[in-house]
């Protein structure tokens, strides 16, 4: 039995502006967010043919992030992370697994911190079992 080798395609420090948070002023004023996204897929055909149409489109992944982060207003970055991954997995069937890190920069808390971050991983098998 042969195992599928997965390639990781990563986006690092993509920046977005959104109106999310548990405090009302965050929904009014908004804030900066950074996203890291690791997408795992079988890239064998893309590598063999060296053709973009066989690869995961990272511009599409950025579009998925933008759609979620600029659409609804969320209270939790955990929910943002999960919704981005669900949207991405629904639109990109060749992704087998993805991990996202959503960082809220300048979080309005009483201690100085660089950021607050939520990380979530979703696998294709988990997506399929939810749909059944």
Structural class: alpha+beta
Q: What gross morphology would you assign?
A: elongated
* N/C terminus separation: 27 Å
Mean pLDDT comes to: 91
What's the number of helices?
5
The biggest sheet amounts to:
4 strands, antiparallel
The spatial strand order of the largest sheet comes to 1-2-3-4
**CATH superfamily label:** GTP cyclohydrolase I, C-terminal domain/NADPH-dependent 7-cyano-7-deazaguanine reductase, N-terminal domain
CATH class: Alpha Beta
Percentage of residues in DSSP E strands: 25-35%
| Helix-strand pattern | EHEHHHEEH
Give the tally of β-strands. Answer: 4
Radius of gyration: 16 Å
Q: Which CATH-level-2 architecture?
A: 2-Layer Sandwich
Count of domain modules = 1
Q: Helical content, roughly?
A: 25-40%
Which topology does CATH recognise?
GTP Cyclohydrolase I, domain 2
Describe it for me?
This protein has helices at residues 24-29, 44-49, 58-70, 77-91, 124-131; strands at 7-18, 31-41, 95-105, 115-123. By secondary structure, the chain is an alpha+beta fold. It has a 4-stranded antiparallel sheet. The mean pLDDT is 91.
Fill in the keyword field for this structure.
single chain; 132 residues; alpha+beta; GTP Cyclohydrolase I, domain 2; elongated
Outline the fold blueprint:
Blueprint: E1 7-18, H1 24-29, E2 31-41, H2 44-49, H3 58-70, H4 77-91, E3 95-105, E4 115-123, H5 124-131
Antiparallel strand pairs: 1-2, 2-3, 3-4
Helix pairs in contact: 3-4
């Amino acid at each position: 039995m042969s195992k599928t080798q997965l390639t990781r395609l990563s986006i690092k420090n993509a920046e977005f502006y959104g109106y999310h948070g548990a405090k009302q002023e965050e929904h009014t004023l908004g804030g900066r967010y950074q996203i890291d996204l690791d997408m795992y897929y079988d890239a064998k055909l893309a590598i063999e043919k060296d053709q973009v149409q066989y690869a995961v489109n990272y511009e599409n992944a950025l579009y998925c992030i933008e759609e979620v982060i600029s659409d609804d207003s969320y209270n939790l970055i955990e929910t943002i992370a999960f919704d981005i991954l669900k949207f991405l997995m629904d639109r990109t069937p060749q992704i087998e697994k993805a991990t996202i890190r959503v960082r809220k920069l300048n979080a309005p808390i009483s201690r100085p911190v660089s950021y607050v971050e939520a990380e979530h991983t979703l696998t294709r098998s988990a997506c399929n079992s939810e749909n059944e």
